[in-house]
Design brief:
Blueprint: H1 11-16, H2 44-49, E1 65-66, H3 86-103, H4 108-149, E2 152-154, H5 162-167, E3 183-185, H6 186-191, H7 197-225, H8 234-241, H9 252-267, H10 275-289, H11 294-297, H12 300-314, H13 319-333, H14 340-360, H15 384-414, H16 421-436, H17 440-443, H18 446-454, H19 487-510, H20 520-544, H21 564-580, H22 584-594, H23 600-617, H24 622-630, H25 647-650, E4 663-664, E5 668-669, H26 670-679, E6 684-688, E7 696-701, H27 702-715, E8 724-726, E9 742-743, E10 754-756, H28 761-771, E11 775-780, E12 783-789, H29 790-800
Parallel strand pairs: 1-9, 4-6, 8-9, 10-11
Antiparallel strand pairs: 2-3, 5-8, 6-7, 11-12
Helix pairs in contact: 4-9, 4-10, 4-12, 4-14, 7-9, 7-16, 8-24, 9-10, 10-12, 12-13, 12-14, 13-14, 13-22, 15-19, 15-20, 15-21, 15-23, 15-24, 16-19, 18-20, 19-20, 20-21, 21-23, 22-23
Length: about 800
Amino acid sequence: MDNRGFQQGSLNSFRSSSSDEDLMDIPGTAMDFSMRDDVPPLDGEIEGKDKSYNGGGIGSSNRMMDFLEEPIPGVGTYDDFNTIDWVREKSRDRDRHREITNKSKESTWALIHSVSDAFSGWLLMLLIGLLSGSLAGLIDISAHWMTDLKEGICTEGFWFNHEHCCWNSEHVTFEDRDKCPEWNSWSQLIISTDEGAFAYIVNYFMYVLWALLFAFLAVSLVKVFAPYACGSGIPEIKTILSGFIIRGYLGKWTLIIKTITLVLAVSSGLSLGKEGPLVHVACCCGNILCHCFNKYRKNEAKRREVTTHGLNSLSFGESLSGTTLGMRIWGLYVSYYFPLKTLWRSFFAALVAAFTLRSINPFGNSRLVLFYVEFHTPWHLFELVPFILLGIFGGLWGALFIRTNIAWCRKRKTTQLGKYPVIEVLVVTAITAILAFPNEYTRMSTSELISELFNDCGLLDSSKLCDYENRFNTSKGGELPDRPAGVGVYSAMWQLALTLILKIVITIFTFGMKIPSGLFIPSMAVGAIAGRLLGVGMEQLAYYHHDWAIFNSWCSQGADCITPGLYAMVGAAACLGGVTRMTVSLVVIMFELTGGLEYIVPLMAAAMTSKWVADALGREGIYDAHIRLNGYPFLEAKEEFAHKTLAMDVMKPRRNDPLLTVLTQDSMTVEDVETVISETTYSGFPVVVSRESQRLVGFVLRRDLIISIENARKKQDGVVSTSIIYFTEHSPPMPPYTPPTLKLRNILDLSPFTVTDLTPMEIVVDIFRKLGLRQCLVTHNGRLLGIITKKDVLKHIAQMANQDPDSILFN
C-alpha cells in the first residue's frame, strides 16, 4: 500500500482534492497533528452546527465518544492517483438503495423520492446525450471552418467555410464547384491575383502562418489552463474506468480547454484526428453532469458508470457504433462491474446524442457519419487475397507505429525534449505544413482525404482519382465499367504515394504531443491510401488482362468488376485494427459506413489478419502501450497469468523485511496512531486484536484515519493525544478522570478480502481483476502474515514478463 505522494497535513487539503474539478497538488510536506482549541472548524456547515462544542466540558467525561454517528466530509473518499475499492463502493450503493426502498413505504414523500432516484439515471443520460451531441456538432463545424481559413476567406460572410460559401453562388459550375467569386484566397485579398509564382508564395506563407498560429494557441492553452487536455485521452479513460483516480482529468476546465484546443489542433493541419479526444470530451460531460445527482456524485463506482454512458454517447456519433465501442472498452478491457442496465442507458444516451447530432447536421450530408458511402458492385471471392494483403499491411503498420511512437514518447519523457512542449509542437507543425502545401492530398484535411478515397467514381465526379479515359461511356444498367486510367489517375497515384510516406512518418512524431490528438483518422488515412493504390492497380490489371484465369470467370470486358473505394475502406479498417487491435467494434463501425451487410466479410478478413500479424510482432495495442509507458495501474483482463507462484512470494513484508505495520483494536492512543501515520507512507493499515496474536479484525484506510482524528480534535477539546482509540463495538470501563476514548469502528472495513499464503497467484490475479480489489490480506491459520496490493500484483506480472517492475508508478 505504498503511497509516497500522500502526506497532506490538513483536512482542507483532503477536501480540496475530493472533487474532479481541480488538479491535484502533491507537496512533500510532513503531516502536522498539533491541533489546538482555537483551530477553526472544518467548514461553514460544521461551524454552524457545532458551536455548542467549543469550550464544552466533555474532557472530564469517561464515556466513549463516537464522532462518526453523522458522516464526516472526506471519509470514504480516495486520494489522487489511487485505486477505488469496487466492493466497498458497490456495497455502499446497495445500502443506500435499500434504505431508500424501505423508507418509500413510510410516506408519500419518501415514495416520490424513491421514484425520482430511480428516474434520475435516465434524466442524466438525456442530459449527457444532449450536451455531448451539441459539443460534437460545434467541434465539427468549427474545425471545418478554421481548416478552410488557412486557404482563404468568404467575402459574403467570414463565418462560412469554403463549401457553404459557394453553395448559393450563381457563378459556379458543376465542374468547378469549389471555385466561386465569393471565396477569395489570401493572395487574392493581399495582391488581388491568384495566378503566378508570387501568388503561390503568398498562399504558401499564409497556410504555414495560420497552421503555426493554431498550433501555438492549442499548446499554450493546454499548458497554461489544462495540462490533462492533451493527447487522445483513451489510455487514461480506460485506466479511470478500471477504478483509478486522476483528479481533474474529467473536470470542467479539461472539458472547456479540450473542446477549444481540439478545434485548433485539427485546424492546424497536423496528422491527428478528433475522434479519440471526442471520447474524452464525452466522458467529461458525463462526469460533470453526474455532480447534479447525489447518488452518482458520492459514489466512485456509480460515477464510472456515468463516464461509460458519456463514452458510449459520442464515440462515433451514432448509437450502435458508440455503444459497441463503449462495450469494447468497458466490457472487454475493464471487466469489474458492468450491470446490464448500463448497456440500455448507454444506448439511450447514444440515441439522444445521435438525434442531437442529426439535428445540427455538421457534415452537411444529412448523415450521422462523415464517410458514408454506397458501393453497388459486389465483391468476388478472389478479392479476398488483396483484402488479406491489406490486412497484413495494416498489421505491419500497426506494429511499426506502436514501437516507434512509444520509443519517441519515452525519449520525450526521459530527456530535455519533454520540457519544451511548445517548441516541439511548433517544429512538427512547421514541418508538416511546409511539406503538406505542395501536395493537394496532404493540404486538404485528413477527413476530406479519406472521404475522397472512399468515393466510388461516377459520371459527374471531377476528381483526379476519377480521371479515366472514355469516362462517359456507360454499360448496361447505367453502371460505369472498368476503364483505363487517365493522366489524372496516374498523377494522383504519385501524389498519394508521397502522401502515404508523409503520413506514416509524421504521425509517429505527432501522436503524444501536448495537444489534443486522436489516432483513428490518421490510421484510417494510411490504410485508405494503401487500399486505394492497390484497388486502382487491381482495377487496371483486370481491365488489361481480363482474359487471365483469375478474372475470366467473373470479370468480362466492359463490366464493372473492381471498386477501388472498397479497397480503401478495407485498408482503413486494417490499419486502424493494427494500431488499436479492435476487431468486432471496428467491423461494426466500418459496416455503418457502407450501409449494407455485403462487405462485412472483407472487413472481417482484413481486421482479423491485421490483428494476427500485429499480435505476432507485439501483444500490446497503442493505448495499452501508453498505459504501460505512463505507469498506470491497469490490470489487463485479456492476458493469462501462467506462472506457478504463490501469494507468499508476492506479499509484503518479505523475508528479512521489517514487520507489517498494524494497528491494534483497543490498546493504541491517538498519539500512537498519529506516529504510525507520520512515519509511514502506506495508504491503509490492518487492524488486529493484539500484536502478539495477530488475529485479523479489519482494515482501515489512512485517509479515513487522518480525517476522523482531525475532526474529533476540532469538535471536542477533550480528545487529546493520550485518548485511546477503539475499533471495537464496546469499550471496557475506564478509571475516573481519564481522557475520553475515541471510537472509530465505523471507518473500519470488517470484511477485508483475505487469501492464505499458499494461494496460487493466478487465482489472486483473477480475484483482483474480477472484483476490482485495492488490496488483499494474506493469512496463515487465521494469523495475519502480509498484504498484497494491486501495485504489487502489477509489479509481479511485469517481473514475470521480464519487464521493469519499477515502471508501475501508482497504486
